[in-house]
Amino acid sequence: MNSKKSLYTQKTLLLKLRNQYDDDAWQRFIEYYKNYIYVVVKNLGVDKSDLDDVVQAILIKLWSKLPEFEYQPNKGSFRSWLCTVIRFHVYNCFRDNNKYSPLDDEGSIQAEIDSISEREWMLHISQLAWKAITPNFTPQVTNVYIRLSQGDTADHIASDLNISRGSVYVYKERVQKALRREVRRLDNELG
């Protein structure tokens, strides 16, 4: 995602999507949600060979349904509705192909879908947040954060980069603060 583009609020994007031929809005929707849809579908047990086709079919279904979708946050989140569309489409794919579906046991699968949805959503918006904040930091600062995240020690990083140990922790804190703020914003805007 280009960080110079402004992020539509969810409400604004959903209003723009009422016009199915607003290419900019659909491109934004795909940027924000396609990878998320992909990992949820994958975690629901769709064969790897079918993943791209199923995701594309879900996007087409959303394209046809979103113009009439009425966003009412007091009744539920957009993400919940999106997961319902995904779940029904995947279930129908299994049924139509006479394959066993892990979605057959409705009681246990709803909890699993909720768990998958939440976990993958947090990963998804974390990745979007990382893309959005990295242009605001020097490569050295992001490198320090990545290395710490991967288990490298502050002493080793400080020695390698010829900076103080204190600078390592300051860089880490700056990136974490920006990342947390961006994750909260994205979750509010897109979730």
From TrEMBL:
Residues 30-98 form the RNA polymerase sigma-70 region domain. It comes from the Bacteria. Pfam families: Sigma70_r2. InterPro entries: RNA_pol_sigma-70-like, RNA_pol_sigma-70_dom, RNA_pol_sigma70_r2, RNA_pol_sigma_r2, Sig_transdc_resp-reg_C-effctor. Keywords: DNA-binding, Sigma factor, Transcription, Transcription regulation. Coiled coil: none annotated. Sigma factors are initiation factors that promote the attachment of RNA polymerase to specific initiation sites and are then released. Sigma-S contributes to the protection against external stress, thus playing a role in cellular fitness and survival. Belongs to the sigma-70 factor family. This is RNA polymerase sigma factor SigS.
